[in-house]
Amino acid sequence: MSALLGRLDWSYLPSDPVTIGAAIGMPLALLFIVAAVTYYKKWKYLWKEWIITTDAKKIGVMYGIVAIVMLLRGGADALMLRAATALGGPGGTQLFDTDTFQQVFTAHGTIMIFFVGMGLMFALFNIAVPLMIGARDVAFPFLNSMSFWLFFAGMILVNAALIFGGFSNGGWLGYPPLTELQYNPGPGVDYWIWSLQIAGIGSLLSGVNFFATIIKCRAKGMNLMKMPIFVWSVLVTTVLIMISFPMLTASLGMLSLDRLAGMHFFTSDGGGNPMMYINLIWAWGHPEVYILVMPAFGIFSEVVATFAKKRLFGYKTMVIALIAIMFLSFVVWQHHFFTMGAGANVNAFFGIMTMVIAIPTGVKLFNWIFTMYKGRIDFKAPMVWFMCFALTFTIGGVTGVLMSIPAIDFQVHNSMFLVAHFHNVIIGGVLFGYIAGLTYWFPKIFGFRLHDGLGRWSSYFWVVGFMLAFLPLYALGLMGAVRRLDHYDDPAWIPFFVVSAVGVIVIGIGVALFVLQIVYSVWKRKTLKDTTGDPWDGRTLEWSVPSPAPHYNFAIDPVVSRIDEWWYQKQDGLQAPRAEDYKDIAVTKNTPLGFMIGMAAFVLGGALIWHIWWLAIISFIAIVLFAIARTMDDFTEHTIAAKDVMRMDMEARS
Amino acid sequence: MKKYRVVIGVACVLVVLVAMGYFLLRGAHFDVLQPAGDIAKQQRNLLIFATLLMSVVVIPVFVMLGWFSWKYRASNKNTKQKDYKPEWHESKRLELLWWGIPAVIVGALAVTAWVTSHSLDPYKSIASSKPAVEIQVVALQWKWLFIYPDLGIATVNKLPVPEKTPIHFTISADAPMSAFWVPALGTQIYAMNGMSSQLNLIADHTGEFSGYTTNINGEGYADMKFKVYAKTEKEFDAWVKTATQSANLMNEATYARLVAPSKAEETSYRLVDTSLYQKIVAKYGHSMSGESSNHIMPNGSVMDDSKLESDEHVHSMEGM
Amino acid sequence: MNDVELKRDKVQLGFWLYIMTDCMLFASLFATYMILRGATNGGPGGDELFSLTFVLVETVILLTSSYLCGIANLALRHGKRKEFFATFGLTIALGIAFLAMELTEFSHLISEGHGPATSAFLSAFFTLVGLHGAHIAVGILWALVLAWALYRQGSNEDLQRKFGLFSIYWHFLDVVWIFIFTIVFALGVA
């Protein structure tokens, strides 16, 4: 322990072969990327066009890239876990030690929820929302940049743990007292706390940003009941984010005070109350899963209507259902700990509230089905992903309602049945929805479509892989298999774990096809080019601009008078824009301050984890100074002259 | 034939999955679905009932998904003019149907949830002509300590009980948060430092049942298993007799050794210190203030906690 | 709505949204405090540790500071430079005085062996009240930066808007303090 380096020392390097492999592999991959960028002399381009950008579309692409890379990391974790459990029965082998196993499942959950789920979500918010509401950018572009770099800082911290110090072993929610100093004095839990704390602040600010954007930046004539349903789903989600994320900040903050300052919020002694943590973290945690899934529902509303070439059934009730789910998601959190002994009345109340959510959710499913009814359905990849979702998510919904009955939950809580349920709804709902969204909006951002066949085949492997990987887990739970086990002594469980491992490999092929789809499409981008800006014969405003969308989104501010404005404009006959329609456009300047604050936050997090106090103070002061510098920044926009706008627009449309 | 490609593909996959399922499930034993205790039996019946009720909605959903995607696909040459209605987007009648039917089903499930939340409340004692056997449970890293205060016995990782007799567990921990679960018998409940939770279970017949912890509590988590041995009354009494004469003593010294993080073998002890459980709970000095000093028993009567001795203090955690 | 008005409108909404999230943060800590306030680990509770007189003085200081901030806002909008700097200066000075008193109370408690690491009750107390104090500190820093900008540039629409946001923030902290006074100190001593 030294003043200069805190508790950092060589003993924290990994000692088991798996982690050593990753600890070497990741820096090597990074080195490779740095070498490639240097070789192609792209540093200036990278800095100017991406790192300091305030353009929501580019920020969205960066979120997407980070999320997909993290999907590979989290997926590798999953392969490891299932390989271990397939071999973990009696007569098998311990593939790697238990401590590593526990770190791997903690990292898997943390990464998938915070960096893949939230990452893809913010990618799609940034890419689609301003375009769909007829705006040029989000309400607070600088805040947007800062949010992304805070997210990025959290991502680095999670991965740095692999190289130095190890990650938490307490599960993705880190219940005390296991995560207190008494049982876990090392840096692992601290990595978990600070990567989430920092990324969480980024998420919270994005929630504020997108709520303000939707409320204040809509095109003329687009009142709330004429917005696309995806935008409604984002609006409702941002309300959830703004109300729930501060509770995460508070919970993680108090746990970090317990660990850094010896306080007693959740310790076993000193009067601490671990149950308080569980309540607080789930008061955030439950809204979080609705935060993840509601935009996916919104995406499917757009996808089904577009590919069925039919107006979405029941717009009004879709809105009501979203709002109902929003309210209900705040009064169900206790269902995550029915078995903590709160008593029959409390359990029953929360259980009933939980199953009530199934009603508006079911309504949405029926509305999608009846949008398909008497439509003319084109089964392009996004629509195929919808079918995969409808099949998979419904099963997950059923098991969810089963567990909402406290007496049933008493038998399946924290078993593999639970693990199967939440993967069922997260993969079926969140992941399939976001992949559909990525496929759907990809041409708008990049100017070419993703290869459709590869996308469909990816979905087939994903859905079959899902069945193989997770249906056996329901059975295992009913056999008494508890979650998070790396070895067990009931031989009857082995075939189920083996099938599950095969399933994960099949999903892995699905992931590989998804990545291949992207790589192949980039290679073949000329043949896949989107020449019209409207590759799907879409219904909403984003399809009225050329692909790739220009920096300013709309050359002329759109005016809206009905739902699915673009679709009906096409039917009425499109008018060519007149020269006098073009006006000067103000565009937010790029700034490095978002990036700098993010990097300072990363240093601050690392310093707190390793108890390097002087560095923590300096990086904190740096953040404050950067923030003050930003407030002094008075000239933050530059104008594109109307004639330049007209010229660029004409070129893009030719 | 080409147009049936998708249908054939889906059918093949389904056949393979169902076949795999059959071979996996045939011969497997499911503690939760083939329970050995009355509590677990009620919970299994509840599971089946709720699943059947929900299939009323789910099966039509799957049928419609399949049928509509087939009939209204763009490549379908047999569609007529009337089969494409791009502006049809409202129907109050249909909406009523799918708000209404799920609401009724959820209503039925809600009533079931309320009733069973009470009837299967872990704190609720099981009605029986036989008096309950008292067992105190302490979750340790990474083993289970079972104390039979009235019988003068303690065990580690093994839980002999008489069949057809209610067991009343009082559960605590001297370890990170753990949970006590015997799937063949029913309900699990958390074991927490300084707190006492309660559980009532009964074994309907003799046998050996596996027990686990369901909440991650450190490196030895996967090894923290125990076995319930449900014996006939005669066998149980015989076992009690041998155990009370055991050379192993469960006193504070033995306990101090047990608390240290380690795995353990199944062992029986003679219980020397009958207030051991209370001492373990009191270690964490929870003052219980900030919570009500009385609580409502499952049968509706009000129990004044301040009048209880500490070893009977029931921590109901209402309001948490 | 022209671009400048739209910007002001957006920022106003964004700021109120931020205040709402800050409310949720404080609410979480209030809930924690209320659950943990009896967990004194055998040590003294609020009735023995809190001095209502001291807290009353702190309250008067903070409320006066807030009042003066309102006066300053009016002065700014009416272009009364001298009055503005006088009242704003006092606002900041009183804020600093409040913080000084709070830090004194904290260090007194710690030196007597009642620091935040001694019991759950004290952890909750120090964190809740301390978070409010940290917000005050940030406010003071913000106020100084604003004062400097106004001194250098004189008053303009943009800075008036920013001052308006600062005063919302400052009044919000007042409201939080009222809750702290009631729930922590008044109820603690009762």
Write a structural description.
Chain A has 654 residues and is mostly helical. Chain A is 67% helix and 1% strand. Among the domains of chain B are: 31-72 and 95-120; 133-283, Immunoglobulin-like. Helices cover 34% and strands 22% of the residues of chain B. Chain B contains 6 helices and 14 strands. The model of chain B is unreliable at 287-320 (pLDDT under 50). Chains A and B meet through helix 4, helix 8, helix 10, helix 11 and helix 12 of A and helix 1, helix 2, helix 3 and strand 7 of B.
Under the CATH scheme, which architecture of chain C would be assigned? Up-down Bundle
Task: Please tally the helical runs of chain B, counting DSSP H or I stretches of 4 or more residues.
Answer: 6
- Give the CATH H-level superfamily of the domain at 133-283 in chain B: Cupredoxins -  blue copper proteins
H/E series of chain C, N to C? Answer: HHHHHH
Structural class of chain B: alpha+beta
- For CATH, the homologous superfamily of chain C is named as Cytochrome c oxidase, subunit III, four-helix bundle
Average residue-wise pLDDT of chain B: 87
Number of domains of chain C: 1
CATH top-level class of chain C: Mainly Alpha
CATH architecture of the domain at 133-283 in chain B: Sandwich
Biggest sheet of chain C, open or closed, and with what strands and sense? none
Low-confidence segments of chain C, given as residue ranges, are none
Radius of gyration of chain B: 27 Å
CATH domain topology of chain C: Four Helix Bundle (Hemerythrin (Met), subunit A)
Roughly how much helix do the residues of chain B carry, as a percent range? Answer: 25-40%
The total count of helices of chain C amounts to 6
Major β-sheet annotation of chain B: 7 strands, mixed
N-to-C CA distance of chain B: 62 Å
**Envelope shape of chain B:** elongated
Query: What is the terminal-to-terminal distance of chain C?
Result: 53 Å
